[in-house]
Structures are given as structure tokens and as C-alpha cells.
Design goal:
alpha+beta; Rossmann fold; Topoisomerase I, domain 2; Topoisomerase I, domain 3; six-stranded antiparallel β-barrel; 17 helices; 24% strand; globular
């Protein structure tokens, strides 16, 4: 089919959506991401030529580039419509170079959402390639290459092959190691509380010890508790004060990339990478029956909380119609972007507030629906009025001993009609209704219970809390968090246990080397300042060569020092406690790409290896001979298989319980969710709750 214009985007899904909007004069094709990059086999940077990068065509992209050139020759004009960010600008620049496009012609098209109106408007106003954006992305790529390709070979020589170091990943690893050291060094401190149950007429309520002689007091020992209890001589207490207030709670701001990743982890149990994959699908377009293909959310890599006036108006219309005028905020809360925010795009929001999740659920996959519902609900709530609580604080006294009761009831739901933000500590605010009391009233103590406590060490990082910490410290940018967390796990520097990061022995060793010999790389303030310098390049305030040069000159000396002074570290193999079944030599435990494994100590003469597996005490339901064991996939996901693999190919993502279904005789498995655990049959509808 003849066409006048060629449009190049990154992905086939995006190409398919846009082509439907533009009509028959346009042909839309995908570059499948980057087409040029630095070579993998060498540094690829000419240090004596102002750090000029040596870009080469990515292996395997030759036929694709040939097709792109053929399509470009047939077109009157080529439009470059990669994503609206630094990386997208760099992809467009590389395409322009390879296709030898006219640098003076305005052919760069950007849109923040893939809707018919947004796409058509973007093509009415194409612009030049943004040199500052390109330079900023190039500077980041070169800087990361210098760090990675300078430190990694040292780690290979001094520790083991296959290791890597990176600018952001090294900071993330240090945070995990430092937290683990805090936990190990933590000394619990004893403290006490006294919880009381009181009665006013026939209604009971709870109150806690507050202080003595009108001063707040912390209880450190049981002796202090007993001393206070000994001063009480009756069950009657006097209400000293009753303070009633109205408290408002504002809605959360619409999502940035980071806050979306955190909330999807808390509420949907999504890993960071999964969140971004699903968000990409929603952004690029979903076919919604007769209405065709539509992009459902705005661009998902953003650190801004800004919302367009059009989106605000549409949300206000929906809120007024569906919930009532009193729920629509006259002036929705305006977020203040962090110092590091670029504000290049809007916050993540639905492209149309009127496209309700329930109405398009049938067109979405389970995961797409969950994430779209989260984004839609968060955005709508951000445009609603605050929740209003009636709060009451009651102080009761006897012989100078004061207990305090706090109560709250929700008076007006406001934004909570639609959405309540998740929490990392899973604490939920509940209504606590106190009986009506007035100053001077008498209440009766029913029970006073002393409780001993010990302070707890800081919690290990989850994916959500590690991303939050990196963002707060100004390390990395929205697009870097998912690959950073993936890298430190893939290198086996950290392991994820009970959804919390723990450093491995290897990670601790690597961190120790980088901290000692490359302190700036893992210095949070240094890295945050470097991010600001790179952002200044993007804003046209600094030259990228200057930024790289300021970093490289002292770094080069650190590399020389490290090569001379780092002593070779031998990670000793642990004895496995049994012999090799092939040659009889002792087996040992080694560390590989995916964690620890058994290997023959007679390597390389004998190359016998075995996975380290944990038996769960259940016979294989397929062959009946082997034991069911825990295994891990290459993506570190736990699954269950037969110990006789590959002779038996039994596999299950859920844990078999060793019983068969009473309805169909298929094996039963334990299925866990955040809220409950069930024993279910995956062959029929049988299920039973697990009694805790």
C-alpha cells in the first residue's frame, strides 16, 4: 500500500495503535528499541577525543535497519516518534543518523499519551531533535560505561568472573549492606507500657498510660510500672479533660513512576519490573472492542505530579455526576515537585477519567486491570475533597497518674470513597468510638495490664522502600529503579527473602571493595550531585564533556590505585558434606550467577554440579518416587519440582500439601495471598481455608 509519510516508534504495539489514528498516508514501523549502542566487548570511548563515544549497530539489528532504510526511501518525509524522554530522544537521534535524515527538517514528534487527539495534534507541530536531551542521555550512558567497564574488570581479577559495578546499583547495594550492618549491631532496649480498659456507664473503652504529675513519662523497667500501679488506690478515675477537634486528611497526589512502583508493590504485590511492563502495555494501547485501540494511561516514566487543566475538568465532571458535588475539590491539592524532578511530563493518570475500570475490565488482562484500576482510582481521588474525621482526646487521672484515650470517627469520606493509600507497615486507621464524656465525670477501671516491649531493629528494605529511599536521596531517575533492583539480584549481590533484601556474602565483599577504593561512587551526596549535573546538561546549563571530565580525572586515579592495592580475595568453597556421585571426590558449595550450588571439588576434571534444593516432606504426585523440592527459576521465583528431574517433569508454582482432592483425586496445593491462605485443587473448584 502506498504511503507518503513514514513514522518510526520503538515497539510494534505502539506502532499498531498510532497507525490506526493517522490513516492511510502514514506507515508506522518499530525500531524495537535502540539500534546503536556502545560495543559490549570494549570500553568504546575515546578518552583523548573529548570522550567521544564509538557507537556501533547493535548485533542482530542489521536486517531491521535495512528495512527501515528501504521504507524511508519511499517516503516523502520520515517522522521520529520515540518516547518523550531522554532515551526516546537518543533513539530518534541514532535513527536520524543511520537514515541520513535532514538535520534541518523538523521531524521529531512527541506525545504524552497515545490518544487520537494527542497524536494528531503532535503531528501538526513536529520539532527539531533536542540536542540538550540527547547530550544528557549520552552523558549518562558514557558515565555508566566508564564506571562499569573500569571497576568490573578489577572485580573479575580480584574476586571472581562475571561481577559488575554500576553508578546507581553500587549505591543501592551499599544501602542494603549498611541496613544489614545496622540490624546486626542493634542492641534491643527494654521499655514498658500499661494498657487499661475502662468503663463509662455500660460502655467500655481503651486508654494507655501517659504520665504522672502532669508530665509525660516513658516506662523503662517493670519496677517503674509497679511503682506507678502501687499509687492507685481505687477503681474510680476522674475525667480531667476532653478535647474534641475536626481533622482533615488530604488525598494523595497522582502517581509518579516511583510512587506507582511503591503502591503497586504494597497493594498488588507486583515486582517493580512487572509494574513497568504492565504500565507500558497500558500506555501503548489496548483494543477496547468497537472503540478500537486506545492508550489508557499517560507516559509512565515521570517524576512530576502536574495535571493538565483538561484532565482536571474531566475528573471534576465525573466526580460530581457519580459521587456528588460535595466530593469534587474546588482547588485540588497541588503537589510540590522534589528538587530533582524534571517536570517534563504530567503525572501518571488515565487518558480519560470517564473510562472507568469496571467498564473496560473485559478487555484487559488480570494484571492490566489491577494496575489500571489503581492508577484511575488514585487520580480520581487526587481531585476529590479531603476526608474529615471527628477526633476526641480524653485524659483521665487518679492520684496524679494520667491515662489517655484517643478516638476518631470518620465524619465525611471525601476522597476515601474511592481510594486509600497503602502503607509499608500495613497499619490501617480504624474508627475508635469513645463513649460520651465530660470533664469531671467518673469512669471505672476494668483492667490494667502492664506490657513488656523491646525496641526493634530497622526493617530490611523491600523493593518499595528501597526505591523510596533512592528517590528521597536523589539517586537515580524513574527509568533506572527497575533495572537497578534487577541487576543487584541477578548478580547475586542481594537475595529477596520474605520480600525483603538481604546482602549475600558476595554482595558484602563487592560493597567493601567499592566503599574502600571508590568512595565517591557509593557516596549518596556525590551521586545526587552528579544527577543534578546531568540534569543541568538536559536543561542546557552545562556541557556534557565538562561533566564527564570533572568526574573522570579523579576517578582515573582511584582505578589505578585499586588495580595496584586490592588484594585477591578468595571466596572459599564450603564443604557440602557428601561425595560426588560421579567421581567420589568431596562435593563443595559454590556461588554462581543464580546463587549457591553444589559442585565437585575435582573440577575441571569432573564437572558434576547439582542444584541446592530443599525437600518439603511430600512425595511427587506425578511419579510417586521422588521428593517434591523447592527450586528457583532464573528470575528468582520459587517453584516446586520433583527431585528426579529430568526423569520426572512435575512442576508447580504452588506448594503441594501431600493430599489429593476429595472431589477429583488431583493433588492439592497451598495457595497464598496477602489476606489468606487456602488449600485448593487446580483441576476443579474444591478449596478449603487453612486453619491458623
Amino acid at each position: 500500500m502506498a504511503y507518503k509519510y513514514l513514522v518510526i516508534v520503538e515497539s510494534p504495539a505502539k506502532a499498531k495503535t498510532i497507525e490506526k489514528y493517522l490513516g492511510r498516508n502514514y506507515k508506522v514501523v518499530a525500531s524495537l528499541g535502540h539500534i546503536r549502542d556502545l560495543p559490549k566487548s570494549r570500553m568504546g570511548i575515546h578518552f583523548d577525543e573529548n570522550y567521544a563515544p564509538d557507537y556501533i549497530t547493535i548485533r542482530g539489528k542489521g536486517p531491521l535497519i535495512k528495512d527501515l532504510k528501504k521504507h524511508a526511501k519511499k517516503a516523502e518525509k520520515v517522522f521520529l516518534a520515540a518516547d518523550p524522554d531522554r532515551e526516546g530522544e537518543a533513539i530518534a537521534w541514532h535513527l536520524s543518523h543511520l537514515l541520513k535524515l535532514d538535520g534541518e527538517e523538523k521531524n521529531r514528534v512527541v506525545f504524552n499519551e497515545i490518544t487520537k487527539e494527542a497524536v494528531k495534534n503532535a503531528f501538526k507541530e513536529p520539532r527539531d531533535l533536542n540536542k540538550d536531551l540527547i547530550d544528557s542521555q549520552q552523558a549518562r550512558r558514557i558515565l555508566d560505561r566508564i564506571v562499569g567497564y573500569s571497576i568490573s574488570p578489577i572485580l573479575w581479577k580480584k574476586v571472581k568472573k562475571g561481577l559488575s559495578a554500576g553508578r546507581v546499583q553500587s549505591v543501592a547495594l551499599k544501602l542494603v549492606v549498611d541496613r544489614e550492618n545496622e540490624i546486626k549491631a542493634f542492641v534491643p532496649k527494654e521499655y514498658w507500657s500499661i494498657e487499661g480498659k475502662f468503663k463509662k456507664e455500660k460502655k467500655t473503652f481503651d486508654a494507655s498510660f501517659y504520665g504522672i504529675d502532669k508530665k509525660k513519662k516513658a516506662l523503662k523497667t517493670n519496677e517503674e510500672v509497679q511503682e506507678i500501679l502501687s499509687t492507685l488506690d481505687s477503681d474510680n478515675w476522674t475525667v480531667e479533660s476532653v478535647i474534641k477537634k475536626e481533622r482533615k486528611r488530604n488525598a494523595s497526589l497522582p502517581f509518579t513512576t516511583s510512587s506507582m512502583q511503591q503502591e503497586a508493590a504494597r497493594k498488588l504485590n507486583f515486582r517493580t519490573r512487572k509494574t513497568m511492563q504492565v504500565a507500558q502495555q497500558l500506555y501503548e494501547g489496548i483494543t477496547l472492542g468497537k472503540s478500537g485501540t486506545n492508550g489508557l494511561i499517560t507516559y509512565m516514566r515521570t517524576d512530576s505530579t502536574r495535571i493538565s487543566d483538561t484532565a482536571k475538568f474531566e475528573a471534576a465532571e465525573l466526580i460530581t455526576n457519580d459521587y456528588g458535588k460535595e466530593y469534587s475539590a474546588v482547588k485540588p491539592r497541588q503537589g510540590k515537585n522534589s528538587e530533582t524532578a524534571q517536570d517534563a511530563h504530567e503525572a501518571i493518570r488515565p487518558t480519560s477519567a470517564l473510562r472507568k475500570p469496571s467498564e473496560i475490565k473485559s478487555y484487559l488482562s488480570k494484571d492490566q486491570y489491577k494496575l489500571y484500576n489503581l492508577i484511575w482510582s488514585r487520580f480520581i481521588a487526587s481531585q476529590m475533597t479531603p476526608a474529615v474525621y471527628d477526633t476526641v482526646r480524653v485524659d483521665i487521672i487518679q492520684n496524679g497518674v494520667k491515662f489517655r484515650a484517643n478516638g476518631s470517627t470518620i465524619k465525611f469520606a471525601g476522597y476515601q470513597k474511592v481510594y486509600v493509600e497503602g502503607s509499608d507497615d500495613d497499619k490501617k486507621e480504624k474508627d475508635n468510638l469513645l463513649p460520651e464524656m465530660s470533664e469531671g465525670d467518673t469512669v471505672t477501671s476494668v483492667d490494667l495490664k502492664p506490657n513488656q516491649h523491646f525496641t526493634q531493629p530497622p526493617a530490611r528494605f523491600s523493593e518499595a522502600t528501597l526505591i523510596k529511599t533512592l528517590e528521597e536521596k536523589g539517586v537515580g531517575r524513574p527509568s533506572t529503579y527497575a533495572p537497578t533492583l534487577e541487576t543487584i539480584q541477578r548478580r547475586y549481590y542481594v537475595s529477596l527473602k520474605n520480600k525483603r533484601f538481604e546482602p549475600t556474602e558476595l554482595g558484602t565483599i563487592v560493597n567493601g571493595i567499592i566503599v574502600e577504593f571508590f568512595p565517591n561512587i557509593v557516596d549518596v551526596n556525590f551521586t545526587a550531585e552528579m544527577e543534578k549535573d546531568l540534569d543541568a546538561v538536559e536543561e542546557g546549563k552545562k556541557e556534557w564533556v565538562e561533566v564527564i571530565d570533572q568526574f573522570y580525572k579523579p576517578f582515573e586515579k582511584e582505578v589505578e590505585n585499586a588495580e595496584k592495592n586490592i588484594e585477591k580475595i578468595e571466596i572459599k568453597d564450603e564443604p557440602a558434606g557428601f561425595d560426588c556421585d560421579k567421581c567420589g571426590s568431596p562435593m563443595v558449595i559454590k556461588i554462581g550467577r543464580y546463587g549457591k550450588f553444589y559442585a565437585c571439588s575435582n573440577f575441571p576434571e569432573c564437572r558434576n554440579t547439582q542444584a541446592i534444593v530443599k525437600e518439603i516432606g511430600v512425595k511427587c504426585p506425578t511419579c510417586g518416587e521422588g521428593e517434591v523440592v523447592e527450586r528457583k527459576s532464573k528470575k528468582n521465583r520459587l517453584f516446586y519440582g520433583c527431585s528426579r528431574y529430568p526423569d520426572c517433569d512435575f512442576i508447580s508454582w504452588n506448594k503441594p500439601v501431600g493430599r489429593n482432592c476429595p472431589k477429583c483425586d488431583h493433588y492439592l496445593v497451598e495457595k497464598k495471598s496477602k489476606k489468606s491462605s487456602q488449600v485448593v485443587c487446580e483441576n476443579c473448584d474444591y478449596e478449603e481455608e487453612i486453619q491458623k
